[in-house]
Amino acid sequence: MEFLLAALFVLALLVFLLWLLLALILSGARLIGWDTNISFERAGRFIGQRNVPGISPILRFFAERKAERERREVEAQRKRAEVEARARAERDRAQKEHDELVERPIPPDIKRDMRAFLDGSFVGEDRSPLAYVGYRVGKTRGLASRERQRRLDVCFRIEIPSDLDPKYQGWGAPATYQRFRSIEKHLKMLADLRRGRNNQRFAVADWEEDRQWFLREYRELAGLLQRHPPRRYW
Question: What average pLDDT does this structure show over 125-130?
């Protein structure tokens, strides 16, 4: 009986020492940059299929760890591919919508207003790109909502001529986020400057209405163009 107990003690001690040795090997491999999965695979091939107590669970642990790491790598690659595909589709959509906008013809009546402005026939305080496309507000000389909005649409997607004040060159290229922000801010500025003046209340109402329309019409596209600027402006 004592012999059996001693044998079991020795066997347990050997298993403990073997476990300790493997742990030390693992720690050392990590310190010097070895691939511990490969090391333990080699150990498994060396031991073979021998029924050594304590070895199989350890080898199984590292095999499972390797499989889990590979699974995570595959999942990460899949997610990266999905993100890249979505970004590519969004970039293509932004380019397509931009190109369609800038290639759309300018209506003949707005073209006439643009020529008249450059010829010096325009009368009014505002000499901005909005005035260039014939945009007018107010009770006396103002245009109907639909006509004003047509001109805002054109102003968003055309080149700004060098004849205008140089500060308007900072409005950005046609159909870009910068152009969107410039028009929106200009409409807000016009309304804010004249708010409270009784003789300007119709003009203020027009500017506010048009600003809200412009935001609804182009805010989503402007955000898309901000994330993916058109290729011609890279």
Answer: 82
